[in-house]
Amino acid sequence: MGGAKRPTISKKDRSSSSKDTKKKKDKGEGGAKKAEITVLVNEQQALKIIQNSKVFTVQELARQMGVKISAANAFLRESTDKGIVKRVGGYSGHRLYQTAS
Predict the structure, then answer these.
(1) Cα 14 from chain centre
(2) Of 11, 86, 98, 22, nearest to 60 (Cα)?
(3) What is the pLDDT of residue 6?
(4) 92 in a domain, yes or no?
(5) Which residues, other chains included, contact 61 with Cβ-Cβ below 8 Å and sequence gap of 6+?
(6) What range defines the domain where residue 94 resides?
(7) What is the reported pTM?
(8) Neighbours of 22 (CB within 10 A)
């Protein structure tokens, strides 16, 4: 029953001639290279936000500073290693931080 229609002779000729004229692109040639973008967090502004709040999250810090969550998370990891902030709770990626004083 049914099935695919057979292409007409004129359509066969068109499809075979168009395949010959098209060239495949090489993946290695040309093309734009991805640029590396670095976002720096203003430490003075971040420390001011951190010191004014009892407990804060990565999302809250990112929103108040106007940066992406990944940039705020990297800043908090560095600050934790330096001993400026400490992790006090949270779960499943929603960690709570406070100043280590």
Answers:
(1) 44
(2) 98
(3) 82
(4) yes
(5) 46, 49, 50, 72, 75, 76
(6) 59-101
(7) 0.59
(8) 7
